[in-house]
Design goal:
Elements: H1 3-29, H2 34-39, H3 43-64, H4 76-107, H5 118-125, H6 127-143, E1 150-159, E2 162-166, H7 169-187, H8 198-213, H9 232-254
Antiparallel strand pairs: 1-2
Helix pairs in contact: 1-6, 3-4, 4-5, 6-7, 7-8, 8-9
């Protein structure tokens, strides 16, 4: 294993740690417990599984087109799988609490557990995968993979045995991701924001970024037209972007305006009061 690959994995580790500490701060604002923090840290496992699965899809598509080379991970798969697994996890948690509360109502020995909100939980977890993704892109730069198109400035890279200068697309994408997270944080404070909109809003922004960034990444000409005249990840960006926009419209019409609770403000809404005994 070369040094670049070690740095690649180390970048993901730093991203995981950063996301976990953001989790702790966000969960504290929502008045939850350490039990839920650890339980939803499985988000990182979901992200790993999604990235691995997407890597397999990438290999199948491009091998059938006659291109060599394998991708171990493709982080776009994490963007797709993580919210699905998060929602499945919180729905399972809600079902378990419902069963526990039914039993407690019969025995009347213990007070019922408070309700858990799917929308608030996904809101809390929304930054995780994108923080890891941003650090992962920095890891790509350190590893020398996912490099950019040839240009007159940039970073020297070996392409087909020749040293050329390539656009620093990994660093550029990482900066856009971190900027996006900051922008979404402030958008959550706006009056139009509805509970549950954080993930589809962030995903839609990332898809727009990724679609554009793909033009700056190095691909064989045929690979740029692999799926419906686009790269595989541009096609995935379009699909996820459309589904995210539809989710935003539904959440806006059916949700309620509810900014992130402050740490000194009591949570009166039973769905926001998610402390356990």
């Amino acid at each position: 294993m070369n040094t670049g690959l070690y740095l690649y994995y180390a970048s993901f580790l730093v991203g995981y740690l950063a996301a976990f500490f953001v989790n702790l701060k966000t969960y504290y604002k929502y008045r939850t417990t350490a039990t839920r923090v650890w339980m939803y840290s499985l988000t990182f496992v979901y992200g790993f599984a999604g990235a691995f699965a997407a890597g397999r899809v990438y290999n199948v598509v491009y091998h059938r087109l006659g291109f060599a080379g394998d991708a171990t991970f493709a982080m776009f798969g994490a963007v797709i799988l993580v919210p699905v697994m998060e929602i499945a996890t919180v729905l399972t948690e809600k079902a378990v609490r419902k069963a526990v509360n039914k039993k407690r109502a019969q025995t009347q020995i213990k007070a019922p557990l408070p309700a858990v909100s799917v929308r608030d939980t996904v809101d809390m977890l929304a930054p995780n995968i994108f923080i890891v993704l941003g650090f992962g892109k920095l890891g790509c730069h350190l590893n020398g993979c996912c490099f950019g198109i040839e240009c007159g400035f940039g970073i020297e890279h070996t392409v087909n045995g020749a040293a050329v200068r390539t656009f620093p697309v990994q660093i550029f994408e990482a900066c856009l991701i971190f900027g996006m997270l900051i922008a979404v944080y402030f958008l959550k404070k706006r009056p139009f924001y509805r509970r549950g909109m954080a993930y589809p809003l962030t995903a839609a922004c990332y898809c727009a970024i990724r679609f554009g960034v793909e033009f700056l990444r190095w691909y064989e000409p045929e690979m740029r037209r692999a799926v419906l005249g686009m790269t595989l990840w541009q096609c995935a960006s379009v699909i996820v972007f459309v589904s995210s926009v539809i989710s935003l419209i539904v959440l806006y019409k059916t949700g309620e305006s509810s900014p992130l609770p402050g740490k000194n403000k009591p949570a009166e809404d039973p769905e926001l009061t998610i402390e356990e005994e």
